[in-house]
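ok, trying the design again with the full structure, not the truncated one.
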């Protein structure tokens, strides 16, 4: 599991869901338009029959009136459902890491305390800040995490989330599921800070306060978006841990087979296997 592919996958899944919602809304709009057209058509037909004064058209008038009443009833029910859905969307917006923040005011802040970070490769960053990243990954309280990142702004970059993801997989393979969950939480924290920085076009180090202020005081939908991302990460980590174990088992079998072949003598026999097959007293 690597940070770019993981969050690219999550972003694509969210985009797909949003597209599906747009298609559903377009279909509902088309249905409303169709009902309007049917209603208008029946009214025209009724007016035409009524103006003709034909006594034989009474049955047709009755039938068209009933059709019009049915259409109007269907239309009223449809509009009521549509209004209810719009109300629910307004009251319970679906927050996610893509729409969790908007840049309402575009201002430039110059923070003299923030010096440009030296760009390091992922391996260089891991080697240099491994201890600090592990310390952050072990934290369980928001206030502690907030203070630690403020005290160690050099950690606030994409490499932090990458390190924590790799560590999550290691912990899952080792069976340390509770600790994996804690580190996964810190990984999403790091990722949310990075996404916030991208959305407001600022240095990520300047967004640490903003993220923790929001997560501590935000409405329920904000926290649910965070938890949704956390659940998805845990699921991906579990899948990757299973894949890694399967890869390790396959590699071990391959090495075992190569080792056995290297021992096989001219007659096609493995001396070790022959030895193991002998009675204990002969061994």
């Amino acid at each position: 599991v690597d940070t770019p592919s993981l969050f690219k996958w999550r972003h694509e899944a969210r985009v797909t869901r949003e597209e599906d919602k747009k298609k559903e809304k377009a279909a509902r709009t088309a249905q409303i338009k169709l009902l309007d057209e049917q209603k208008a058509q029946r009214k025209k037909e009724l007016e035409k029959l009524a103006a003709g004064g034909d006594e034989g058209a009474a049955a047709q008038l009755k039938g068209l009136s009933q059709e019009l009443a049915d259409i109007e009833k269907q239309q009223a029910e449809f509009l009521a459902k549509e209004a209810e859905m719009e109300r629910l969307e307004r009251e319970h917006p679906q927050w996610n890491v893509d729409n969790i923040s908007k840049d309402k005011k575009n201002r430039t802040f110059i923070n003299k305390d923030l010096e440009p970070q030296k760009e390091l490769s992922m391996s260089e960053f891991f080697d240099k800040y491994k201890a600090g990243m592990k310390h952050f990954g072990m934290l369980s309280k928001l206030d502690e995490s907030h203070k630690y990142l403020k005290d160690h702004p050099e950690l606030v970059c994409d490499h932090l989330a990458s390190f924590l993801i790799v560590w999550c997989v290691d912990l899952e393979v080792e069976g340390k599921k509770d600790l994996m969950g804690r580190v996964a939480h810190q990984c999403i924290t790091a990722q949310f800070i990075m996404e916030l920085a991208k959305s407001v076009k600022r240095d990520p180090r300047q967004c640490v306060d903003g993220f923790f202020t929001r997560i501590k005081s935000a409405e329920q939908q904000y926290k649910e978006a965070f938890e949704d991302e956390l659940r998805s990460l845990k699921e991906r980590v579990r899948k990757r841990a299973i894949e890694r174990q399967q890869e390790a088992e396959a590699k071990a079998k391959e090495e075992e087979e190569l080792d056995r072949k290297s021992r096989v003598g001219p007659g096609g026999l493995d001396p070790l296997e022959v030895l193991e097959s002998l009675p204990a007293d002969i061994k």
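Keeping the full-length input from now on. Confidence is low (pLDDT under 50) at residues 106-110.
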